[in-house]
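User: Sequence in, structure out. Go.
Assistant: Echoing your sequence, followed by the structure tokens.
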Amino acid sequence: MERILIIRKIFNEAIALIDEAGLSYWHNEADAPLGLSEMGTRLAEAEAIICLLTDRVDAQVMDAAPHLKIIANVAVGYDNIDVAAATERGIIVTNTPSVLTECTADLTFALLLATARRIVEADAYMRAGKFEGWELFQPHLGVDVFGKTLGIVGLGRIGAAVARRALLGFNMSILYTGQNPKPDAGRELEARFVGLANLLRHSDFVSIHAPLTAQTRHLLTLNEFRLMKPSAILINTARGPIIKEADLVQALEQDLIAGAGLDVYEEEPEAHPGLAALPNVVMVPHIGSATTETRRRMALMAAENVAAVLGGGRPLNPVNFTSRNP
């Protein structure tokens, strides 16, 4: 009996950890998605699933796995898993927080700087052989970042890491919004808690770091973009559906805001067709945690969660059953 079903290819170090724990497993090394029929009897026998953010684990999958004890997601987000269905069935869900905080904050600032200074446009211009020498009014004039105001939607681990870079590296003023104020983080980061509308009106840059929930889906629509400064730049390294993408295209086309840097999209892996046509949008393919070191640590953490639960212990990073095991 293979106790662990590893739906996608993961790092060898995570496999070695499972081997050291003496646990049997089946590993889909093809790194391609599996359907229920392809998982077959393996799913029926599995006590644990290790999956990626792109693997949908819903009630149907859980019902096909009557022995399932834990679903370990190799990601900090877990909107690919029906957590309510798992909780009803006594199945623990875990994620991989903390290990990708700094990496994702780095990418957030990379997108902010690239969009503000029009790096992608300038790179294409240079490669095309169009550069003929320094000019006062060069074709890719950007905007300053140092000393500006950064609005953060969601001051969690990643949002706070971005704020720290903004404050200490770029002397930026920090506004933040969320469900509740965070006095300790606010004092450390000299950040002021405001409502969303206030944040949008006064920020030069807006960076999204909220989880995807029923409340945050389409949090930013055309109405919100109309509140922003025409010179403002929007950054999203959280979840695509937080932004209504068609409205973002409209806002950019109408110069309601100046630009956007995006790592995530409403209908991944597709992006709204209008985005790619806009020169003031920097787009990357969901690479917030995409360094070798970080992805390896994420896989190891998922394996550690599984080994702990199947060994009769508590998971390191439970999403549900946080105060006790089921």
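User: And one key feature?
Assistant: DSSP finds 13 helices and twelve strands in the chain.
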